[in-house]
Amino acid sequence: MKKGFWFIILSAFLFSTMEIVLKMVSNQFNPIQISFLRFFIGSIMLLPLALKNLRGKKLRLNRNDYSFFILTGFICVVVSMTFYQLAIFYCKASIVAVLFSCNPIFVVTFAFFLIGEKLYKHTIITMGLSIIGMICILNPFNMTISLQGIIFIVISTVTFALYSVISNKKSEKFGGVVLTCFSFLMGSLEMLVLILITKLSFISKILSDNGLNEFANIPILHGITISNIPMLAYISIFVTGLGYTFYILAMEETSASTASIVFFIKPALAPILALIILKEAIAANTMIGIAFIVIGSIINFRENNKLARNTIS
């Protein structure tokens, strides 16, 4: 349990710095380029652990398994994380971090409608508090946040929730490490194919002529310099690779419900780190919104732990 506690702390810290570092490099890399690099490197970091788990379960991936990972990789890496990176470009890192942490709202909704998962009273209360928190942060009566950025983070959050629910169908068979590793690997390879397509002159011209310069002639290694290699290494190796590894190890050492406290710590910690590192001011409405989200998360965490204990007994 002590090891599990440290895995939770390390994972929460790394995940809370994710938007901050991505914001710091957002003007140095193409948004799709940075997503490709960090998920490809991150998946390579996870690969030894994933292969070890497959051997332990005496499993070999077949054509259907690869098709499944191609789907989950596309939803998570190509769609969700592309819009996530675009959201960071248009919004404050702290806002993106807090709103993305609300993805369990959509996970619960998709799980209820797609796989018939039971909806508990405390889950509805948590969803309600999270929605109130989101409204407080967005402050629709005096919105100063980029509408384009909000649309991007909503698309990213919804599609990430969809990825989570679809992945859950195979979680018992493969486990979290294998699911995460191969989804990231397939998604980054799909992204590489799309990057190569954008380098075709006629495709690049069509995209540029329609104002989609971010998607035209996307670089792969261009822009990497000695000065930004440390940040690229941090976001790829530490946040994407080790962050997810620590989170998965935390689940193995404790439980899924206990490890999920990582995503309850992040909405509170990320804005504080953004204030210290990026000097992003925390508005009063944002603090109120964060409070609602954290309270909802604590309620959800406590009630889920009670349910888990009752199930065991």
Quick take:
By secondary structure, the protein is mainly alpha-helical. It is about 80% helix and about 0% strand.
Any key phrases for this structure?
79% helix, 15 helices, globular, 313 residues, mainly alpha
Mean pLDDT: 84
Silhouette: globular
Put simply, the count of helices is 15
Helix fraction by DSSP (H/I, runs of at least 4): over 70%
The rounded Rg comes to 19 Å
Number-wise, the strands total 0
In terms of structural class, how would the helical and strand content be classed?
mainly alpha
* Sheet of most strands: none
The span between the termini is: 19 Å
Order of helices and strands: HHHHHHHHHHHHHHH
Q: How many structural domains in the coordinates?
A: 1
Strand content is under 5%
Protein name: EamA domain-containing protein
Subcellular location: Cell membrane
GO cellular component, one term: plasma membrane
Pfam families: EamA
Describe the structure.
This protein has 313 residues and is mostly helical. The chain has one domain (2-312). It contains 15 helices and no strands. The chain has helices at 2-16, 18-24, 31-56, 63-90, 93-100, 103-114, 121-138, 147-168, 171-174, 176-198, 201-209, 229-253, 256-259, 262-278, 284-312. It starts with a helix and ends with a helix.
